[in-house]
Automatic annotation (TrEMBL):
Protein's name in the database: ABC transporter domain-containing protein
Organism of origin: Salix dunnii
Biased composition (Basic and acidic residues): 1-13
GO cellular component terms, A-Z: membrane
Keyword annotations of the record: ATP-binding, Membrane, Nucleotide-binding, Repeat, Transmembrane, Transmembrane helix, Transport
PROSITE patterns assigned to the protein according to its UniProt record, in alphabetical order: ABC_TRANSPORTER_2 (PS50893)
Annotated InterPro entries: AAA+_ATPase, ABC2_TM, ABC_trans_N, ABC_transporter-like_ATP-bd, ABCG_PDR_1, ABCG_PDR_2, P-loop_NTPase, PDR_assoc
Start and end residues of each ABC transporter domain: 157-430, 852-1107
Transmembrane spans: 526-547, 559-590, 610-632, 644-663, 669-691, 752-779, 1200-1218, 1230-1250, 1286-1308, 1315-1337, 1343-1363, 1370-1389, 1420-1446
Amino acid sequence: MESGHPYRADSGLRRGNSSRIFSSNAAADHQFFSPSSQGQDDDEEALKWAALEKLPTYDRLRKGILTTSTGEASEVEVQNLGFQERKNLVERLVNVAEEDNEKFLLKLRNRIDRVGIHVPTIEVRFEHLNVEAEAYVGSRALPTFFNFSINMLEGFLNYLHILSSRKKHLWILKDVSGIIKPSRMTLLLGPPSSGKTTLLLALAGKLDHALKFSGRVTYNGHEMDEFVPQRTAAYISQHDLHIGEMTVRETLAFSARCQGVGTRYDMLAELSRREKEAGIKPDPDIDVFMKAAATEGQETSVVTDYIIKVLGLEVCADTVVGDEMLRGISGGQKKRVTTGEMLVGPANALFMDEISTGLDSSTTYHIVNSVKQYVHIFEGTALISLLQPAPETYDLFDDIILLSDGEIVYQGPRENALLFFEYMGFTCPARKGVADFLQEVTSIKDQMQYWARRDVPYRFITVKEFAVAFQSFHEGRRLENELGVPFDKSKSHPAALTSKKYGVNTRELCKACFSREFLLMKRNSFVYIFKFSQLTIMAVIAMTLFLRTEMHRDSVPDGGIYVGAMFFIVVVIMFNGMAEIALTLVKLPVFFKHRDLLFFPAWTYALPTWILKIPITFIEVAIMVFITYFVIGFDPSVGRLFKQYLVLLFTNQMASGLFRGIAAVGRSMVVANTIGSFVLLLLFALGGFVLSRDNIKKWWIWGYWTSPMMYAQNAVVVNEFLGKSWSHVLPYSMEPLGVEILKSRGFFTEAYWYWLAVAALFGFTLLYNLLYILALAFLNPLGKPQQAGLSEEPQSNKVGRMGEATHLMNPGSSSSLHTRAESIDEIGRSKSSRFTCNKQSGVILPFEPHSITFDKVMYAVDMPQEMKSHGVHEDKLVLLKGVSGAFRPGVLTALMGISGAGKTTMMDVLAGRKTGGYIEGNITISGYPKKQETFARISGYCEQTDIHSPHITVYESLLYSAWLRLPTEVDTETRKIFVEEVMELVELNPLRQALVGLPGVNGLSTEQRKRLTIAVELVANPSIIFMDEPTSGLDARAAAIVMRTVRNTVDTGRTVVCTIHQPSIDIFEAFDELQLFLLKRGGEEIYVGPLGRHSCHLIKYFEGIEGVNKIKDGYNPATWMLEVTGAAEEIALGVDFAEIYRSSELYRRNRALIKDLSTPAPCSKDLHFSTRYSRSFFTQCLACLWKQHWSYWRNPPYTAVRFLTTTLIGVIFGTMFWDIGSKITKRQDLFNAMGSMYAAVLFLGVQNAASVQPVVAVERTVFYRERAAGMYSALPYALAQVLIELPYVFVQAAVYGVIVYSMIGFAWTFPKFFWYLYFMYFTLLYFTFYGMMTVSVSPNHQIASIISAAFYGIWNVFSGYVIPQSRMPVWWRWNSWICPVFWTLNGLVSSQFGDMKDRLETGETVDQFVRAYFNFKHDFLGPVASVIFGFTVLFAITFAICIKLFNFQKR
């Protein structure tokens, strides 16, 4: 929408074409004049307007008359409007969005109609659409290690046509046809998994290419390939993907900047021309608004301010959006940002997918109403899918499309929907929302209760039967007739369809992407400061380790130390680029979204990430070179200093480009890190230092010539050793020492190699950045958003099993408390007549009821910096202003309020889940002060964000929660029965074998995930349950199931507190005794009391306040309540609802109740448990290990990829270092053999550490939730995470060890092979545990990867390979003793060569050289093995301690 910006035509048309598009319409009707031109205008303003009229069209469209805050009219350049001017303008035009938006849009439309311009319209038709997918079902759908391997093999055989595919065909849409008309609001309804999202994507031209698609979609009769559908229509996704560091305003402004103004400019030019001819003077504010909205290339547009106003986002406009680890805006606000991101653009057709998730019914109503105003006034086209539309929201729509099981059951006017179902024999009960009825009437579980023909026995009517019957219904016949007549293309407005791929020219797109990238670099400045600090430390280490006083120029081995110093510097510069992987990946999901919406081409996104970091490269390399060069004692020539600087500059650029390219190709942290390590390994091993050129096998020499590291290494050494310092000739030698050193290590000796290498590095930089751009342009995100495990259970087994409600013991009586009669009746009605419950199911689990009271609770956080910069002077932002209340057993308390009122904040404070901020006030549990440790044992918390381990099934998630949270008295069998019943209750049985997956990536849908969250808490059998928006993201039927569960829970005598955003009438009134806790924005209570039958108490209270509008018949009380208490109403009535409440009788009654419940009952005891956790330490360890086992087994991108790459690296190393272990005749042979060990240890180790980081990071967010719930302490979790790695790493080490040991040709004796395996196994283990440890001390795995990279560099230099320990200055020698890689190389070299008596060409034996040069002794193997084991244990223990001590979750 861009409600208010109708000036749209084909975006390919610019200024010169405006008359062609718009002047062809009806001539202006000159008799209309604007109100301002009919009154007596102010002379000065009239003179200014007259001057403006005389300007050429181009200038006239850039200037307007703006009224300032003092009331003066002044001429302004519209593209230079300041923040305050734009804000004042929008405030004047739309002061209160709910009231003024329609008036404002009508003013805009009247201005256009007055001169006879027609606005473009779009009619979307779809005929015989079929969408089909292929997927594995049952256990084959689970991505286990085994299935991953079989699927790869099967896929290869399918490709060769040797084997046919075992995948099952699944229909998503089946032969659907229909018309979405302009000027009509169309609502898309249907239960989850009915194909709503697929239909919206198909109509918006964004359907996944992996799906089989047939049928046709046309816009105004034009096929999809005749225009650009992604820009003609706006698809608004149900997933909120945004860059967390950007504010709401910046996010929307960037979107507006990229989407451009469409043909607003062309329309405005024609409008201005006609107004000038007719002598019409428009309203100055409307004129400035339209001109500002038609000016492209602005950093912040007036459209952005307008959309922020309409969507109610002003309160958080300058707050960062936030993500999992960065505190930002609320879930409901995030959903509105997702909507606003597309509304700021010029698209004429809107396809909106579940835009109400997380929004209260009042906000949803206002947003849908503003879309309706735009659609009706500007003849827009809108198809909106909503899960739980309230009756008043439902009434805003003109047409309904009801989709079920991929078929259209009804399409036509809203008024006739109920007629069709009455024609089929079903009626909607009174006080039942029509939308809820429509979604339930096709469901086998709910259909029977709506059957109205008492004279005809009920039978289940299938979706197919409904679809066939609709064809003969009068609306169905009318639709068929309309589709039979093709759309007359000549009636299509030339400006309706967009043929230009992007919204603005590439120059503007580049500017937008550059400014956003620069902004993100400023926001992430910590990363760059950290990298500078890291490089400074590395430079200081290098210069003190290779200090010139210790560096001699007397022999070839002396030169070898210089080579080591240069190799170290090159490696540091190379490794420095590896941080690009994390920085690139974190932004990729948002990039893919923007790219697919055609915001910009891939190259305009890629260039800023490359070019803006070039200055940082200059600083990074300067730190390294200028600190180290003269101190190390390199050739003292300024020319050679700058030549080294230049070559390292290109090396840094090449490395950054390479790792960005790898991130874009890998597209996930695990895959990218694996590929990254693998590529680095090849560059490293074939760079000419680890394995000299003379020793590279002929089948690997191509790798040497294509390794950019080889060029960097050669350029640096040639630059150094051909200098004056190395020109002297040693005795008994014919050549300068420098040349001799170059030859001994297999480097080139010609000076031109320096410039050749620089040119090659420049070429590689361009090549890798080109790879990055191509990968961004052509690859799609990994992981399809689909359910990971489809049940193979027959349909007949899936249905009608709601009768067996879980019976939980009421402490007040010895017998179990049955669900009330009406609840049983409600459940009974929902079953098909074929299903009856012939057994009383139920497990009696005792609990103790508790009340919770809170008095004058305040919560504040430090004032965000953005708000301070906008003139706010307070130090603290108060989010809860002294709220008081009491929650009692057996009473459901509904916590309500508009989005941003502080509902989740209040719940977090009461449940003890806040990790930051300032809390004041008293909270008591049954009269005793609340202690979080004991409170966690008796409470459950269903979070708004559904956080679960992604790689285990639904059933396993529940079993795990019950195992750890139910007391030890509950035996295994009882526990399993209880879990089964909770699954029945929440209807999770059909999904029991489905993988949970990651939200928005794969696995369960939003509503399935929500039900799982509730079930996970219910199996804990808590006394007090907090539920944060349990119905958000659910359709009406799923919400009814959830609330039925909540009701059953309340009826057992538990204390239940829910925040509810969008309650339908039947959900809102389903509870006989519901206490409402209503908050207004700012965190103050305005009603705390009973609801009453049909909400009578609530209605009576608010209607008793003077000026409050009375509720209409049939209107949802929840929506009415939020509307009449909104900020706009407070301003209009001049009242403060919080003050009215505080002076009411209701408030005094609540104070008395709080006082009463804050006093402990006689004979009661404070909460006390003999142990902090329900289960013993051993059971906690066992449960955590069980979960980790399944998580690892079903995570092939981590386990299988690691295994495959290890095998591949083993084969590569074996062929690269073929048979070098069997014949040691020269020192270089020993260096090569040691090089193979060094490279393998470093790279396999780094790969293990890097790939484990994202896995631990994902599990850690689950750990935070589970620990807060009191499931286990940190130690069992850490122990399980450590233990599960042991078998996987053992297989990895064994496979690598056997391959490499046999191919390199080491001696086949048991002790030597055992030591080789021992050192490889514990080395890979300590690297893996080190990776886990870095995550435990970092807020996320991106920071962890940067921190860990710093230490890899230090470990590399002190490993004893780059510079042997004997040549290290005495002040650094201690560091090699604490370097784990040094001990690994010590163990590997000592065990293989420490007892070898073969003579070298120099006359000494191998063991003598090893001892003299490296200081490695064979008889020291025992202590070395112990130290390696010690490092492994140290890192594991540090991980456990840090996981226990640090909590990076901010809430």
